[in-house]
Write a structure and sequence with these properties.
Rossmann fold; alpha/beta; 7-stranded parallel sheet; 14 helices; 6-stranded parallel sheet
């Protein structure tokens, strides 16, 4: 008997350029056997060694929210409808509650049951843009289940959809492949080597980390690893604060290469200002033994546990004080290193995959009654 087929994907290039595509690669590589998976995406470089068992490339020219989005969604819907006719999936997983492909899945699904998955950027967009909110609502309405990575995200999706689909929301914490042991260890110096890594956009608020460095009592160093629209602004702010000798910038690194770098640092700065889907890169840093200094957003204290210390999001002075507190208290730093590594053990990708398998079997069975 053939395994049931899940049709899923993200209308992003098939590259490890964001947490969503990496998370999907991790998860769907692990549910093979229980399900066949056909993952749809946009053309990329073709060099990424991903974990998707089967893939297909979309041809519609991507358009963001605005005048061209409806036409783009209609083109994707035609593509998806043909894929559904050809492959006869048993279940659809719609990634992102706002991307064009998820909307196309919702419109073309017909009798195929659909589970949708919130990733964060979609929910933030819906809170700020009427077109994005309408898209999110249509996708949620078409879903038998809506997966969110934490309770805070579920509360926001519920609010945005006027509490109409509360019973469809279910929490599945994100996970990652865990290292056998932490690679970063506490060092004696109170002058910290700090790391910020990830997408460089306004919501990630890397500028808060740079401005905090100008306010610390100790001349710590900061390395920023990542790419994004905010990079020129961040570099200019570094120059204007005369921090060029203490702040360095490096381009985006593939995940395994980033993991190799964690041992070079003493703490990880996680400076997101608004809603955060889960904080996967912060949990990755914890798994390697790094304490996290993070903006106190809903859900992050639960996710990061005692291996992190918080500050008011966007407040550079409070972040500077938190950094110095960690730097000046060796006992605290040691305990945070241990707590960080222990906390990350809660988020094994195998647990995430097992929960997704159970939900998917239940949705497929319910849809085929």
């Amino acid at each position: 008997m053939n395994s049931p087929l899940i049709l899923t994907g993200i209308d992003l290039p098939m590259e490890p350029s964001c947490g969503s595509t990496i998370w999907c690669s991790d998860v769907y590589a692990r549910i093979a056997g229980e399900f066949r998976v056909l993952f749809l995406g946009l053309p990329g470089s073709g060099t990424w060694t991903h974990g998707f068992p089967e893939t297909a490339l979309l041809t519609a020219a991507k358009q963001p929210y605005g005048p061209g989005f409806d036409t783009y969604a209609a083109q994707l819907t035609d593509e998806v409808a043909e894929l559904i006719r050809t492959h006869q999936p048993d279940l659809i997983h719609a990634q992102h509650l706002g991307f064009g492909l998820a909307l196309a899945f919702a419109r073309a699904a017909g009798s195929v049951p659909m589970v949708s998955v919130a990733h964060g950027t979609d929910v933030i967009a819906a809170a700020e843009n009427d077109q994005a909110r309408a898209t999110l609502t249509e996708i949620v309405a078409a879903s038998t289940k809506v997966i969110v990575p934490n309770t805070a995200m579920g509360i926001e999706v519920d609010r945005l959809t006027c509490h109409t689909y509360t019973d469809r929301l279910t929490t599945v914490p994100w996970g990652l492949p865990l290292p056998l042991a932490p690679t970063a260890t506490p060092r004696p110096s109170n002058r910290l080597e700090l790391l910020h890594a990830g997408r460089l956009d306004a919501n990630k608020s890397t500028i808060t980390a740079i401005e905090a460095l100008a306010l610390t009592r100790i001349p710590h160093r900061l390395t920023v690893i990542g790419s994004g629209s905010e990079l020129p602004l961040l570099q200019e702010r570094t120059r204007s604060l005369h921090l060029s000798e203490r702040v360095s910038f490096e381009p985006f690194l593939p995940r395994e290469d980033l993991w190799d770098r964690f041992a070079d640092f003493d703490a990880f700065l996680f400076t997101t200002r608004q809603l955060e889907a889960f904080g996967l890169v912060a949990v990755e840093a914890q798994a390697h033994g790094l304490p996290i200094v993070y903006g106190r957003l809903p859900g992050l204290d639960t996710t990061l546990g005692k291996g992190g210390t918080g500050y008011r999001p966007g407040d550079a002075q409070e972040l500077a004080e938190a950094i110095d507190l960690v730097a000046e208290d060796p006992a605290l730093r040691h305990s945070m290193h241990s707590a960080a590594a222990a906390n990350a053990r809660r988020f094994d990708i195998a647990t995430t995959s097992a929960q997704l398998i159970r939900l998917s079997h239940a949705a497929a069975i319910k849809g085929n009654r």
